[in-house]
Design goal:
single chain; 207 residues; mainly beta; Phosphatidylethanolamine-binding Protein; 6-stranded antiparallel β-sheet; 6% helix; 36% strand; globular; PEBP-like_sf; PEBP; YbhB_YbcL/LppC-like; protein kinase inhibitor
Amino acid sequence: MKLEVRGIEDGQPIPERFAFGVYSSTDHMSFGPNKNPELVWDQVPDGTRSFAVIMFDPDVPSVADDVNKEGRTVAADLPRVDFFHWLLVDIPADTRRIPEGEDSDGVAPKGKAGGPGPIGVRGVNNYTQFLAGNPDMGGTYCGYDGPCPPWNDEIMHHYHFEIFALDVDSLGLEGEFDGNAVREAMKGHVLDSARVTGTYTLDPDLR
């Protein structure tokens, strides 16, 4: 398969229009346009019956004690974990494109609904956990929400956009399913896949 993420070159910085958080010289971070980028794919294998999209950041701190704290930094050698930013499953087999802004166009305080969306079925991304203690933002975040790494992290973050061609019409996922559930449900059903990786940081020293 071949995947194009329009506006993002493989290995290059992600434009701010796709970000949940953008750099601010006064407050470290402010909300960004948070548009999902346009995905276009082809060279689909025979037997494809649906697609799934996953976007994740493998560079998220495993311990959040120092995240976004004045006078502290998130150490480069801290163990890292996956943070899911976008989950779409049961995308019809005849689909070859997700338009820019179709699944997200702006930050939605307290999240947005899961289940069937404009294209496919939305899963729950990890902003649900990250913002759970915030009275103004806490809620269930589904579908796409873009990059917003800690502004005091010593490392650049990488964002993997992945498309999977599957041999089933549906993964059978219902309710508030997460990225691990998608990966588990796809086991044994992936005919092919493709990936594009972009980078992003809010640390002025890395920008």
